[in-house]
Amino acid sequence: MNSILSPHLDDAVFNTWHILSQKNTQLITVFAGLPDGNHATLWDRIGGFKKSRDMMEARRQENETALRGLGVRIVNLDFLDNQYMNEVRDEDELYNQLKAKVAKTDIIYAPIAASRLYRHPDHVLLRDIGLQLKKEGYKVNFYADIPYMQIPKKPGDSYVSRLEKRIFSLTGEKLKVSVISLDKNEVIKKVAAMKAYETQFTITNLTSFGRLSKKANVQSEIEIN
Description:
This protein is of the alpha/beta class. The protein has one domain (2-224): LmbE-like (Rossmann fold). Helix content is 41%, strand content 15%. The chain is built from ten helices and seven strands. The protein has a seven-stranded mixed sheet. It is globular.
């Protein structure tokens, strides 16, 4: 089975469409918990919600819509997104719960969190968990996390070499970067799924200066192993 570790309720569709479209795949969204209380973060208020809990409930539904028809097994864990955290995260509990959802026979996919500018802490944590699982003998691959990372229009050997060096400097692992090119029909399906995240797509695209919808970032995906 393919087991995709997605930090949030959209990252997998943005970055691993070539895996989601395969049979026998499960998507584990780790930071899909529903925050308590009546407060809302700035991000959620910009998205039109007065309560962060309502935002997360909407995002869970968007995830169901985006993946409809793919046959993907959806697993949502109840850990909170970093923006909702008011206390130190129990990383051991997170690791144990996540490990219980995968098997040694799975091919696990985790975000590589190798942006040169900003690495989201939730993505970094899942990268580190992926590296730990790899050390324990699990089959773990990684994926580039758009829009934090960027893919050039023509991702040739030079780009691959630079990214491999950056990944080695971050992880100490000599990993191979492969560029996956989606065909026209898959790009159309992927874009439709991306836009199903109505609370996130527009605002994320705006705050990333259009990088989320940039053609190169949509039609190409990066697999690292």
